[in-house]
């Protein structure tokens, strides 16, 4: 008779490996975190918070986003209400330049340092890039020096260079999910095509923002796979979304991610990405409610999207700003990002 | 019953049917007219339970369907608000 192998405590390992040495967890280790019992979630979140404080610092990066071009997208991302391939109630809309300037001003007034201009496209055409160029110029002429990011789909090298010339400092392009799960989520383009855009963005000197959505039918193993694949990209920022089952999409009847699962994901992603900006993004309102948002902020998150999202509404910005104040978390200032 | 944090009247998605003021989602301003259709799913408010629709409108969704005619509206969400335009009944906007 042989003795049962001694269980390795993944949080004990993480304390030495991630907190002390700053080395992110492996895929197997992340899976171990995602499988922790509910009663160990507080311990996980406390450790993730310590990791965030040690390797990122106390500041929280605040961002606002806006949809410049809504709906009518030719791609078939199954989670997205803006795909033209599904019977979603979302109709096409373009935001004009004055509207974009107002949105940037509203964002800056919250104390945010980031403003992300987003379009529902496979990739930008000349009209869209022209609109972005004119929009950035108008935002600057409005006296607004907020940092501008873009999310315009897949890019060519020429388009990457154009965005750099416009002064776009960060580019968002989410890998969305694990490479092994991606073909179940999107069939009109590949994970590798997205990866190629991200590499061009990085090589051109823009900051890389790349995250995804939890709750799209992936296994816990694939959730762990995704965290480690993101870590291998070494992104500057990872936005963490939780699926909003939007009507008309193939995922409209998927369940909302349960709070404990979401908190385990927050902690696990922090332990896989100790130095990365980890941003609370869409879906947290449904998944967490108000209480869970605080738990997440105390569990490794160090950035937040305030106000509304692209087609869904967020909490009022002031509610989140009040929460940060209550948690004594300072908001990153613009001067410290330059 | 209101359908939003800043809402001031009864209305769309909350089960009200009939003539009167309309509130559509969080922070909506009102628009006079028949409150017949759910702003979230576009179906007749008298035909089914719209409690789940009302929750979505209260928490994370702007209205997508006109409460008077159920046409899909063109909706623009911005960081601090939204506008929704029906080709027949005009524009409504969030209070924020």
Automatic annotation (TrEMBL), chain A:
Pathway: Cofactor biosynthesis; biotin biosynthesis; biotin from 7,8-diaminononanoate: step 2/2. Homodimer. Its cofactor is [2Fe-2S] cluster; [4Fe-4S] cluster. Residues 58-284 form the Radical SAM core domain. Its EC number is 2.8.1.6. It comes from the Bacteria. Belongs to the radical SAM superfamily. Biotin synthase family. It catalyses: (4R,5S)-dethiobiotin + (sulfur carrier)-SH + 2 reduced [2Fe-2S]-[ferredoxin] + 2 S-adenosyl-L-methionine = (sulfur carrier)-H + biotin + 2 5'-deoxyadenosine + 2 L-methionine + 2 oxidized [2Fe-2S]-[ferredoxin]. [2Fe-2S] cluster binds at residues 116, 209, 279. The gene is bioB. CDD domains: Radical_SAM (cd01335). Transmembrane segments: none annotated. This is Biotin synthase. Catalyzes the conversion of dethiobiotin (DTB) to biotin by the insertion of a sulfur atom into dethiobiotin via a radical-based mechanism.
From TrEMBL, chain B:
Residues 73-95 form the Biotin synthase auxiliary protein C-terminal domain. The keyword Metal-binding applies. Coiled coil: none annotated. Its cofactor is iron-sulfur cluster. It comes from the Bacteria. The keyword Amino-acid biosynthesis does not apply. Keywords: Biotin biosynthesis, Iron, Metal-binding. Required for the activity of the biotin synthase BioB. Belongs to the BsaP family. This is Biotin synthase auxiliary protein.
């Amino acid at each position: 008779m042989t003795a049962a192998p001694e269980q390795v405590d993944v949080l004990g390992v993480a304390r030495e490996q991630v907190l002390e040495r700053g080395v992110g967890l492996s895929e197997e280790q992340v899976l171990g975190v995602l499988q922790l019992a509910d009663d160990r979630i507080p311990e996980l979140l406390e450790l993730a918070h310590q990791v965030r404080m040690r390797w990122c610092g106390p500041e929280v990066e605040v961002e606002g986003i806006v949809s410049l071009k809504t709906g009518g997208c030719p791609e078939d991302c199954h989670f997205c209400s803006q795909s033209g391939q599904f019977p979603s109630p979302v109709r096409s809309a373009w935001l004009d330049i004055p509207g974009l300037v107002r949105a940037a001003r509203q964002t800056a007034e919250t104390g945010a340092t980031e403003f992300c201009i987003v379009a529902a496209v496979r990739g930008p055409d000349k009209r869209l890039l022209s609109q972005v160029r004119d929009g950035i110029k108008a935002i600057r002429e409005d006296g607004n020096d907020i940092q501008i990011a873009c999310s315009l789909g897949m890019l060519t090298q020429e388009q990457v260079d154009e965005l750099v010339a416009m002064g776009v400092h960060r580019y968002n392009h989410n890998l969305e999910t694990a490479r092994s799960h991606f073909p179940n989520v999107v069939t009109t383009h590949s994970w590798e095509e997205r990866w190629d855009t991200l590499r061009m963005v990085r090589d051109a000197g823009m900051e890389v923002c790349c995250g995804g959505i939890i709750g799209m039918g992936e296994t816990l193993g694939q959730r762990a796979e995704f965290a480690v694949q993101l870590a291998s990209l070494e992104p500057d920022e990872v936005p963490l979304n939780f699926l909003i089952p939007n009507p008309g999409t193939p995922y409209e009847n998927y369940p909302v991610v349960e709070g404990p699962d979401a908190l385990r994901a927050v902690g696990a992603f922090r332990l896989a990405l100790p130095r990365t900006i980890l941003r609370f993004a869409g879906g947290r309102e449904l998944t967490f409610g108000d209480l869970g948002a605080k738990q997440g902020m105390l569990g490794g998150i160090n950035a937040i999207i305030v106000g509304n999202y692209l087609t869904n509404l967020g909490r009022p910005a002031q509610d989140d700003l009040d929460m940060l104040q209550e948690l004594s978390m300072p908001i990153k200032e613009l001067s410290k990002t330059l | 019953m209101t359908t939003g944090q800043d809402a001031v009247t009864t209305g769309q998605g909350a089960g009200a049917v009939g003539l009167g003021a309309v509130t559509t989602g969080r922070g909506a301003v009102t628009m006079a007219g028949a409150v017949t259709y759910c702003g979230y799913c576009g179906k007749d408010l008298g035909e089914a339970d719209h409690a789940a629709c009302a929750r979505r409108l209260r928490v994370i969704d702007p209205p997508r369907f006109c409460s008077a005619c159920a046409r899909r509206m063109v909706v623009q969400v911005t960081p601090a608000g939204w506008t929704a335009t029906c080709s027949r009944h005009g524009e409504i906007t969030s209070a924020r």
